[in-house]
Amino acid sequence: MAQSPLMEFEEHKLIVATLEKLFREAGAKCVYLVDKAGALIAASGDTRDIDATSLASLTAGNIAATDGLARTIGEKDFGVLFHEGEHDNLHISIVGQKAILLVIFGKSTPIGLVRLRVKKACDELDKGLRKLFARAAGLNEEALLPEISDDNIQKLI
């Protein structure tokens, strides 16, 4: 997999550190941060036996399909998804409407622990992603317009 140019920024290192902390504190097998287009931003944990490219693409597709389901029943979105498997579980969260956090954990790990740790990590990741994307775009954080939401931008397109 090609290395993302985002990995060169200091903010990316802070995002990776947040993922590593989440991995340890949540008792996860691995943790992935993916953009909404399905590209891997960062990962932590035992990722050796997982095709990260496919996992990232499928996770983004899952979120896109679930967004369609949400709108069909009158919801804006579903910010958290949980998939229970025979051996492993997936906890998927939207991070600041820009990225997707995927946590893979085993049956012995309580879902409540994962949810608690993910909530805290999402706040830290959102801040880090805002700084990272601003830097990558050649802007400083103050140049971003926080009063303009993603919904407002979509209306302009």
Note down, in words, how this protein is organized.
- This protein is an alpha+beta fold.
- The chain has one domain (5-156): Dynein light chain 2a, cytoplasmic (Beta-Lactamase).
- It is built from four helices and five strands, in the order H-E-E-H-E-E-E-H-H.
- The protein has a five-stranded antiparallel sheet, sandwiched between helices.
- Strand 3 (80-84) and strand 4 (88-95) form a beta hairpin.
- Helix 1 (10-25) packs antiparallel against helix 3 (111-136).
- It is globular, with a radius of gyration of 16 Å.
- It starts with 9 loop residues before the first helix and ends with a helix.
- The mean pLDDT is 86.
Structure summary:
The chain has 4 helices and 5 strands; from the N terminus they run H-E-E-H-E-E-E-H-H.
Overall radius of gyration: 16 Å
Query: How many beta-strand elements?
Result: 5
Strand proportion: 15-25%
Please report the first level of CATH classification, the CATH class.
Alpha Beta
Q: Low-confidence spans: pLDDT under 50, at least 5 residues?
A: none
In terms of structural class, how would the helical and strand content be classed? alpha+beta
Figure out the total of helices.
4
Counting structural domains, the number is 1
| Oligomer status | single chain
CATH superfamily assignment? Dynein light chain 2a, cytoplasmic
Main sheet attributes: strand count, strand direction, barrel closure? 5 strands, antiparallel
- The appropriate CATH architecture is 2-Layer Sandwich
- Through-space gap between termini: 32 Å
User: What share of residues is helical?
Assistant: 40-55%
- Average pLDDT taken over every residue: 86
- Gross morphology is globular
Order of helices and strands: HEEHEEEHH
